[in-house]
């Protein structure tokens, strides 16, 4: 299981994942905010306008919420979801309903990256939705979630120009220093970020409760079956 700060959001993640593995959502939450609902990032990013509960607009210049979505991406979410806009107060709020909106926006972003990759190259990234995505497309989607599709696309174009397959292992080799300045200082570490999110997801996925098709915990069902056999032998 995840620690309490992350595991507490499992129900919220399950409700909003919509095809994304729940433990992958939790891994993104851990990496982005450490499970801190309503978190405001410490560093500035490109500013963007976000509506308030009062109907006004506020300029935000930092990533917000459990999944640390940047202002212009929140703006894109609101444009695509006019009946369910995310307000500034919701993105920095601390309530359970605020947490759910923060995760909803983050999951929308991740699903959008899956779709963007498919539109960019349907042969290399054949999945249109998260449930169909293979490991390679998932890894690229994590990379896009961190760095944005535009920045990732620029490097994928460079790979294509070299006639490389869009394979994450190749990308990892070619861009291992992505985010490092010429002075050797790290501004961002997208490869490390992607590897960490995926490793945490795979590690915790293996410890998640295994459920049968009807949603019943398989371990419990197995125990009940053994008990039934024992009672049958004892009293038959």
Summarize the helices and strands and which ones pair or pack:
Blueprint: H1 4-7, H2 10-16, H3 22-33, E1 48-51, E2 57-60, H4 71-80, H5 88-92, H6 96-120, H7 135-147, H8 149-161, H9 168-174, H10 190-205, H11 218-235
Antiparallel strand pairs: 1-2
Helix pairs in contact: 2-6, 3-10, 6-7, 7-8, 7-10
Key features of this structure:
236 residues, two-stranded antiparallel sheet, disordered C terminus, 2 domains, mainly alpha, Lysozyme, globular
Spans with pLDDT under 50 lasting ≥5 residues? 209-234
Task: Give the % helix.
Answer: 55-70%
Query: Could you name the CATH topology of the largest domain?
Result: Lysozyme
Q: Please provide the count of β strands.
A: 2
Give the biggest sheet: 2 strands, antiparallel
Give the oligomer, counting copies of the same chain as homo and different chains as hetero. single chain
Tally of contiguous helical segments = 11
Question: Mind explaining what this structure looks like?
Answer:
The structure is a single chain. The chain is 55% helix and 3% strand. The protein folds into two domains: 4-205, Lysozyme (Orthogonal Bundle); 206-236, no CATH class. It starts with a helix and ends with a helix. The chain is globular and about 50 Å long. The longest helix has 25 residues, at 96-120. It has helices at residues 4-7, 10-16, 22-33, 71-80, 88-92, 96-120, 135-147, 149-161, 168-174, 190-205, 218-235; strands spanning 48-51, 57-60. Strands 1-2 form a two-stranded antiparallel sheet.
């Amino acid at each position: 299981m995840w620690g309490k700060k992350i595991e507490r959001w499992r129900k919220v993640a399950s409700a909003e994942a919509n095809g994304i593995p729940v433990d992958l959502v939790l891994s993104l939450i851990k990496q982005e905010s450490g499970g801190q609902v309503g978190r405001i990032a410490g560093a500035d990013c490109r500013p963007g306008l976000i509506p308030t509960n009062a109907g006004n607009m506020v300029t935000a210049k930092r990533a917000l919420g459990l999944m640390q979505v940047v202002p212009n991406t929140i703006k894109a979410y609101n444009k695509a979801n006019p009946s369910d806009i995310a307000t500034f107060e919701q993105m920095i709020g601390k309530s359970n309903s605020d947490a759910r909106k923060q995760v909803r926006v983050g999951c929308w972003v991740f699903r959008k990256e899956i779709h963007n990759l498919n539109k960019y190259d349907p042969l290399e990234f054949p999945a249109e939705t998260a449930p169909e995505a293979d490991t390679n497309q998932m890894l690229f989607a994590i990379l896009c979630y961190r760095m944005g599709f535009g920045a990732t696309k620029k490097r994928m174009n460079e790979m294509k120009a070299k006639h490389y397959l869009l394979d994450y292992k190749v990308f990892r080799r070619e861009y291992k220093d992505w985010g490092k300045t010429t002075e050797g200082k790290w501004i961002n570490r997208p490869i490390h970020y992607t590897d960490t999110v995926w490793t945490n997801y795979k590690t915790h996925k293996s410890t998640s409760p295994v459920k049968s098709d009807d949603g019943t915990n398989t371990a419990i069902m197995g125990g009940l079956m053994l008990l039934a056999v024992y009672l049958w032998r004892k009293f038959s």
